[in-house]
Amino acid sequence: MPAIIERQTINQARGFIDALRPTGNPLERWLFRGVANADRYVLLPSAHRDEAAWQAFKPGFDPRHASEAARKEAERELARRFYLTLDKAGFPLPGMAPLTKAALHGVSSSWPPGAVTDLLALAQHYDVPTRLLDWTDRGLVGAYFAALKPHGEEDSHLAVWALSRTFTRKYGLVSNGVQTTIHLVSAPRASNPNLHAQGGQFTYCMDLETLRPLDDVIEEIYRRVREHTADVDSLLPAMRCLRMPRSEAKHLLYLLHEEGVSGLSMFPDLSGVAKHIREATWCERPTEELDA
């Protein structure tokens, strides 16, 4: 039987990029997330990952030691502040305003209700903690974000995680009477240039009393569904984790720039120009290509 989560280590940047290209396996069914340090990072959203993300918004709040009810209320309050400040500053309000206002003021018992997904997607791109976990529908974009911060930690690994959209859509909500907790959502890109440029999509989990990484949730979903049907095996692996030594990060960044994947294409404003120039000073052509 295939693994629920398929894990692979590739030692060179060229091979890493080739493994992420949309050939061979039907990668159009995958979403990707790049992480700079696979040995430390866990698949938790910023609102749940650590205390530091909250300190500029709610000093003293530590989501790791709060109840799910307290986390929801803190997230709702922060989203409400973000929404009201957008309005005060005269920026366009994402989503359907009447529904968003009702949801932000506690009319909806669940969090986050669908009406505020667009708002949370915008907040997520400006470093406001939310329970949305960013993904991209492009493997090389995931590699780009994994390759950033190319200095230091040479003995660690970067990684690109891949999540099966097919598995998540079929089993992420309800299957054979088994209630599960993972949601796959998209937000309109017209009002969010970064989201459009990066091919962004999101996942979030609802009503989790304990904070669990997404890969743990996926494994639990598989085990619970497998009790009812063996058909789930045909959709494995549900996730993939492709790792590469961080010592290859500068080579990876060079190859991505050659592919047109850089700060210039990922951030369609003046900040992208500066990011592109800075990244160009980090890039190193792979040694095997210099010797060719």
Describe this structure in words.
The chain is an alpha+beta fold and 292 residues long. The chain folds into 2 domains: 1-41 and 132-247, no CATH class; 46-129, no CATH class. The chain contains 13 helices and 9 strands. The protein has helices at 13-20, 46-49, 68-89, 97-104, 117-124, 139-147, 165-171, 193-198, 214-226, 249-258, 263-266, 270-282, 287-290; strands spanning 5-9, 30-35, 133-136, 157-164, 174-175, 178-179, 182-185, 200-205, 239-245. A 4-stranded mixed β-sheet has the order 1-9-4-2. A 3-stranded antiparallel β-sheet has the order 3-8-7, with helices on both faces. A two-stranded antiparallel ribbon has the order 5-6. α1 packs across α10. The longest helix is centred in the first third of the chain and has 22 residues, at 68-89. The protein is globular, with a radius of gyration of 20 Å. The model has no long low-confidence stretch (mean pLDDT 86).
Strands, total number: 9
Instruction: Tell me the distance between the termini.
Output: 41 Å
Order of adjacent strands in the largest pleated sheet = 1-9-4-2
Cα-based radius of gyration, to the nearest Å = 20 Å
Total tally of structural domains: 2
Q: Indicate the overall shape.
A: globular
Strand content: 15-25%
What summary fits the major beta sheet? 4 strands, mixed
Helical percentage:
25-40%
- Output mean pLDDT: 86
Number of H- or I-type helical stretches:
13
Secondary-structure element pattern, one letter each: EHEHHHHEHEHEEEHEHEHHHH
Class derived from helix and strand content: alpha+beta
The unreliable regions are: none
